[in-house]
Automatic annotation (TrEMBL):
Superkingdom to which the source organism belongs: Bacteria
Database matches in Pfam families: ExbD
Tagged with keyword Transmembrane: yes
Family in the record: Belongs to the ExbD/TolR family.
Keyword Transmembrane: yes
Organism: Saccharicrinis fermentans DSM 9555 = JCM 21142
Coiled-coil ranges from the UniProt annotation: none
Name of the protein in question: Biopolymer transport protein ExbD/TolR
GO biological process: protein transport
One GO cellular component term noted in the UniProt record for this chain: plasma membrane
Length: 156
């Protein structure tokens, strides 16, 4: 019996790159779908106060934000330099908070409504009178879980 040998060594075949564009577009589509964009355009300046005892919120989808602070330079001509309340992307008054909370509560699932938390993001120099008025409006709207946003105090 004779043995047949191929001339030359075994070369590894080239990797096919024909499916590479498909893989790239699948990854691009996945990240486009799973990424969330910035939800609110801040129109007020907020320097969050410092705190020593902090707790992280569990589910951010159950949190409704109320922003309080001085209008940015862009809006100071229209709204002045006094602290203002911002709900979503618009300036509002304290009397608008009850309807805002009702609207946010209606947008949630029935099972998540009792777990809804209202987070007040207020500027460090914001007068306490505005915060008190907001808390009174939240009581009238039956939004009793309130969170105050703060950053961790730097330890020296």
């Amino acid at each position: 019996m004779a043995k047949f040998r191929k001339k030359g060594g075994k070369a590894t075949p080239a990797i096919s790159t024909a499916s590479l564009p498909d893989i790239v577009f699948m990854l691009l589509f996945f990240f486009m779908v799973s990424t969330t964009m910035k939800e609110v355009d801040l129109k007020v300046k907020i320097q969050v106060p410092e705190a020593t005892e902090l707790a992280k919120l569990e589910k951010k989808s159950l949190v409704t934000y109320i922003y309080v602070g001085l209008p940015t330079k862009k809006y100071q001509g229209m709204y002045g330099t006094e602290p203002r309340v911002q709900l979503n992307d618009a300036f509002a008054t304290v009397s608008d908070i009850q309807s805002y909370i009702a609207q946010e509560r209606d947008a949630m699932k029935e099972s998540d409504r009792p777990k809804m938390t209202t987070s007040i993001k207020a500027d460090f120099d914001c007068p306490m009178g505005i915060i008190t008025e907001i808390k009174q409006a939240l009581r009238k709207a039956q939004a009793l879980k309130i969170n105050y946003s703060a950053r961790k105090k730097a330890e020296y």
